[in-house]
Amino acid sequence: MTKPLVFIDGDQGTTGLQIHERLHGRADLQLVTLPEAERKNPQRRAEAINACDVAILCLPDEPARQAAASIVNPAVRVIDASSAHRTDAGWVYGFPEMNADQGRLIAQALRVSNPGCYPTGAIALLGPLVRAGLVPADYPVAVHAVSGYSGGGRASVDAYEGPGGPQGPAFQLYGLGLAHKHTPEIERHAGLTARPVFVPAYGAFRQGIVLTVPLQLRLLPAGVDGQRLHECLHRHYAGAAHVQVVAPEDAAGHTHLDPQALNGTNDLRLAVYGNAQYGQVLLTAVFDNLGKGASGAAVQNLDLMLAAMG
């Protein structure tokens, strides 16, 4: 049987490099990339995309749109790691654990949009709670997240790891215009009907994310507390290979969260922290922005698609 041909378009960026590393040496597929001299040649890229079974696009948004538009072979399947198609109804959102049907939809899809790193954590926390009616869809959600500097792409990595030593700050808040491109993705796929406030930041570490969503219990339906929120997440992700929900007794002993705790994995760790006296809850997610937040998720989606191709 012929091995599926997997073409990575843009394998020199942070996401593409890690996907290449994760797939290199696998015996169940043939991995194809373009030589350096041909990477920006539209004709060669279009030829490579139309000759493969699955194309993984690791490109900026506009080149990703152009690459997708260049496909004329109806059998070619695509995983787009950019944000170009994440709210496009014609593309399947590539978060297998989002609901009971999502893995099947991804496996059968021709077009899959890989989730953004920050939205992965926010949607994982909020989606099940909103669908269960424990968090109102119009709740005034605020999401704060700190990522390793690799989230800023090649330029950011070079600023911290280039010749002459680190040039980036120890910590930087950005997206101050409250118009970050991930916000509509969070709103749509978490099931929200009101735009959340999203505040991202970078720290002086290479990779990893801590994401938090604070909740006021007085704004939730009567009877909803941290325990019920935890139980909902625990039920939703029961049996999920890559999502862990921290037990309340373990969460009670935590004094801090390490954004790098799951680096190198495709895992996502969720937790609920609360203070009953003050009526407040904190939802948290820890994961690798280059793992479950990018390259690991792309490979997970690829494996679902390859299994369906059988």
UniProtKB/TrEMBL annotation:
A cellular-component GO term for this protein: cytoplasm
Major localisation: cytoplasm
Pathway as given in its UniProt record: Amino-acid biosynthesis; L-arginine biosynthesis; N(2)-acetyl-L-ornithine from L-glutamate: step 3/4
Function field: Catalyzes the NADPH-dependent reduction of N-acetyl-5-glutamyl phosphate to yield N-acetyl-L-glutamate 5-semialdehyde.
Family recorded in the similarity comment: Belongs to the NAGSA dehydrogenase family. Type 2 subfamily.
Taxonomy, superkingdom: Bacteria
InterPro entries: AGPR, AGPR_AS, AGPR_dimerisation_dom, AGPR_type-2, NAD(P)-bd_dom_sf, Semialdehyde_DH_NAD-bd
Pfam families: Semialdhyde_dh (PF01118), Semialdhyde_dhC_1 (PF22698)
Semialdehyde dehydrogenase NAD-binding domain residues: 5-106
NCBIfam families, per database record: argC_other (TIGR01851)
Alphabetic keyword roster: Amino-acid biosynthesis, Arginine biosynthesis, Cytoplasm, NADP, Oxidoreductase
Reaction catalysis annotation: N-acetyl-L-glutamate 5-semialdehyde + phosphate + NADP(+) = N-acetyl-L-glutamyl 5-phosphate + NADPH + H(+)
Organism name: Achromobacter agilis
Record's subcellular location: Cytoplasm
Active site, per annotation: 117
The protein's Enzyme Commission number: 1.2.1.38
Protein's name in the database: N-acetyl-gamma-glutamyl-phosphate reductase
Molecular function as annotated in GO: N-acetyl-gamma-glutamyl-phosphate reductase activity; NAD binding
Gene3D superfamilies: Dihydrodipicolinate Reductase, domain 2 (3.30.360.10), NAD(P)-binding Rossmann-like Domain (3.40.50.720)
Name of the encoding gene: argC_1
One example of a Gene Ontology biological process annotation: L-arginine biosynthetic process
